[in-house]
Design a protein that fits this description.
This protein is mainly alpha-helical and about 170 residues long. It folds into 2 domains: about 70 residues; about 90 residues, Winged helix-like DNA-binding domain superfamily/Winged helix DNA-binding domain (Arc Repressor Mutant, subunit A), CATH 1.10.10. A 3-stranded antiparallel sheet has the order 1-3-2. Helix 1 packs antiparallel against helix 2.
């Protein structure tokens, strides 16, 4: 939705600035001494509005969209469909197979520590930054692979029971 609106704004601004350029070229420039638009004087502010401002807006929007790309990425098939468990393969192995390298590293660290760790300890064991660890754990929690509980000034991260094969 956001990218469609930005695209519309950029196209609209380019069209307006192109029209302003055409009026500028065929009307004798900024002085307005030409045959177009009745041959009268056109104020400089009109040219500024028709040509320079929309062009500035178009480049600003384009620069913004390149600097801050849309972060909401559509879910891939791997995220939406459950992993297919092959014969002789555990659920854990199937999940590890579809995770990216960073998510796999965090999940394997959790498995190595018995399925429960503090978020700050995961950060130190994996060597990831605080923000990167948070983002990875957020993606894993969104998929239901881990859950997070508030624990003083950090989070207690627990591997999902369905993944470890534990019963309630």
């Amino acid at each position: 939705m956001q990218s469609k609106a930005l695209t519309f704004i950029v196209i609209f601004a380019f069209v307006i600035s192109t029209l302003g350029l055409l009026f500028f070229a065929f009307d004798g420039g900024f002085s307005g001494r030409g045959h177009g638009m009745g041959g009268g004087e056109l104020p400089r502010s009109l040219w500024l509005v028709l040509f320079v401002v929309p062009l500035f807006v178009a480049f600003s929007v384009l620069g913004y969209s390149l600097t801050f790309p849309n972060l909401s990425v559509e879910k891939s098939k791997e995220e939406t469909s459950p992993p297919i468990v092959k014969k002789g393969e555990s659920t854990l192995d199937a999940v590890l197979r579809v995770l990216n390298d960073d998510e796999r590293k965090v999940t394997e660290t959790l498995i190595g520590e018995g399925g429960t760790m503090l978020q700050k300890d995961i950060r130190w064991k994996t060597g990831f930054s605080r923000v990167k660890t948070h983002r990875i754990l957020f993606r894993l929690a969104k998929r239901g692979i881990v859950s997070a509980e508030k624990y003083y000034n950090t989070n207690k991260i627990v591997l999902a029971r369905w993944l470890t094969g534990e019963k309630k």
